[in-house]
UniProtKB/TrEMBL annotation:
The keyword Cell membrane applies. One of its GO terms (biological process) is signal peptide processing. It comes from Brevibacillus panacihumi W25. This is Signal peptidase I. The chain crosses the membrane at residues 21-42. It is a single-pass type II membrane protein. The active site is at S46, K87. It is an enzyme of class 3 (hydrolase).
Length: 187
């Protein structure tokens, strides 16, 4: 009888240890997903050829607790209450942005965009006259970012919705993880 009671106590202790471990694991997962990293699914073609429709990637949510987004970074932000967008930061507060003759200008200087080379080549092959339509100068207000998709002819971005508030930014896209054969850093 005493052996059965001792065995029962040991099983209870082991069960309790498993329950504690599972609760801790769930809490850690929730904390990581809430404050550090989150998965995101690319929806649409606005970031082609950098990112593709239905690719899955990891978003770093912690980085912007330490600093603001910088030009060139790919960010996920709340476009409205039900949708998140993924776009590239083009300019920050105080910058003046415009496009003339397919050239992006920030504060009057041409911005080199090597991530657009393949898309520009494809547009020319298809007979497109412009890769990015001209738009007049826009000054980015304080607390805002100017964002654009890499697929400039097929992107609802700051040219349409205006500069976005920094407070709507969820995080920076770090790397794709699905499909596995396309795993890569997004910078």
């Amino acid at each position: 009888m005493q052996e059965e009671a001792g065995g029962s106590q040991a099983k209870k202790r082991e069960s309790w240890e498993w329950i504690k471990a599972l609760v801790i694991a769930v809490l850690l997962a929730l904390l990581i997903r809430t404050f550090l990293f989150a998965p995101f699914i690319v929806q649409g073609e606005s970031m082609e050829t950098t990112l593709h429709n239905h690719e899955k990637l990891v978003v770093n949510k912690a980085i912007y607790f330490m600093r603001d987004p910088k030009p060139g970074e790919i960010v996920v932000f709340h476009a409205d209450a039900t949708r998140d967008y993924i776009k590239r930061v083009i300019a920050v507060a105080g910058d003046r942005v415009e496009v003339k003759d397919d050239q992006l200008l920030v504060n009057g200087k041409v911005v080199e965009e090597p991530y657009l080379e393949r898309k520009e080549e494809r547009a020319k092959e298809q007979g497109e006259l412009h890769f990015t339509y001209d738009f007049p100068p826009v000054e980015v207000p304080q607390g805002h970012l100017f964002v654009m998709g890499d697929n400039r002819l097929n992107s609802e971005d700051s040219r349409v919705i205006g500069p976005i508030e920094v407070s709507t930014v969820v995080g920076r896209a770090e790397f794709t993880f699905w499909p596995i054969s396309q795993t890569r850093f997004t910078r």
